[in-house]
Write a structure and sequence with these properties.
The chain is mainly alpha-helical. 32% of the residues lie in helices and 7% in strands. The protein has a single domain, classed as Macrophage Migration Inhibitory Factor, CATH 3.30.429.10. The protein has a two-stranded antiparallel sheet with strand order 1-2. The radius of gyration is 16 Å and the shape is elongated.
């Protein structure tokens, strides 16, 4: 949850600095899709074994 909040704050900050879009004029939504609802490399996400660690 902390990483998501940091991301949202950074997006608001960068949108204003880089694009001139005020935070009051921007809505951010994080939509998380369960792993069983997507697939890569020929496998469903919940069956996929990665050979590297993913850290957020």
């Amino acid at each position: 949850m902390d990483a998501k909040k940091r991301l949202i704050r950074l997006l608001f900050e960068r949108a204003e600095l880089d694009l001139g879009i005020k935070p009051m004029d921007l809505e951010i939504t994080i939509s998380e899709t369960p792993r069983h609802n997507w697939g890569i490399r020929g496998q469903a996400g919940d069956e996929l074994a990665l050979n590297y660690k993913v850290e957020i």
